[in-house]
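Backbone geometry:
***
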Amino acid sequence: MIPTALTPIPTLDSAVPKAPETAGMVRISEVIAALSYALDITEGQPQGHAARTCLIGMRIAQQIGLPSFDQSSLFYALLLKDLGCSSNAAKMCYLFGADDRTVKRDLKTVDWSKMSASMQFVREQVAPQSTPLEKLLKLVSLALQGPKGPQKLVQTRCERGAHIARQLGFTEATATAIHQLDEHWDGKGHPQGIKGTAISPLARIMGLAQTLEVFFSMQGLTAAIDIAQERRGRWFEPELVDAFLALRDDYDFWRMVCKPNPHLQVSVYEPADEIRTGDEAQLDRIAKSFASVVDAKSPWTYKHSSGVADIAVGIAEVLGHSPQKLSTIHRMGLLHDVGKLGVSNLVLDKPGKLDDTEFDALKQHTHHTQTILSRVECLQDLGDLAASHHEKLNGRGYHRGIPSGELPVAARLLAVADIFEALSAARPYRDGMPLEKIFSIMGGDAGTAICAESYAALRTWLERREFENRVETQMQAIDKLVAEI
């Protein structure tokens, strides 16, 4: 029986290669696989999309006999293929006048290299909630972009993803594969339009695996087979499609792909002789990189996560926390908004007040943060704390309404850091506030909604240094976005 779309089917557990036993070290694949869920929601995909894509891509790599070192580079490229996904979200939302996540999700099912399919996609996606005139104006604006418009969107995404992969210390082969993810065998892909064997062998596998996962998750194995055959020789290298078709009856494998929590399955396919482990410093680099992914989603949140992390550490220093605790708090600050990757830019970039439905959607980001971080074993303790940055002492915060007696000190100071950084920065509906106004607002809430001790520590920390808000860098990011549009 052919597995249906994401229907959980019991299967035998496979033996997972063990990482070298080294004190204080973590297995990088486990961290990256779990955090890849944050990239999934930015792309509008079901959580686990990247992990399932990794399973499919690595199984094809085994089928063609890809060397172990290349398999290792492919393994991380598959998990991190969407590292640059947030960098074009605001631009896509503006150009289409639509939820960026929906546009990205549906784009993965369209044969956009065909003019008729591309035009139909645009007509369906542009300004779906707008008046006919507004929709027409958006269509004209997109038409004026010409073919270079979509190419720029993909180029921004691919370049950013490859850059972050290099920053994390992955191989050049991994970075190149991420950069060339959307190239097609016939040369009609993006961003460079290269064709055939000029495309990285790893990128060729990734492009096929990504499409297979989307259709497999939506409609089952038969749909994945059909799309591979339809695009054989156009989007995909014929030999890779044939290798995939040879796996169509490997039902044990497809059952494994269907299992819940696919991030727990990917370690089976990490080459045993190429297992990566990392220390606390590497975890910090990963947290910093994912913070940059979060902050790239909207120009209004540019450098917000790193700012909150620095302010939270400053508050904690004044309160006398240990160096080890300061490290944890910094990491917590970097990752506190990772759930915002699942919020539409229609909400994040709205120039006016949010309505109730939009505010409810925004409030979901703390739940997403908690869910994503809870999957990372070495970061599980941070999950609850990071997701508590909108909780209030009076129990009226979100998303859990935790009362003061149950709100840890770290969560309290994170909330203060987040509020201060947000008020000092510009938003689409207001300018950044001067310190005097911020202190007036926060001082009025101290002891009732926010922690008075943490607020006092914030004031002390600010007195010891010259605070620089990020309004100027925000405006530069916004100007750059406008110029590119």
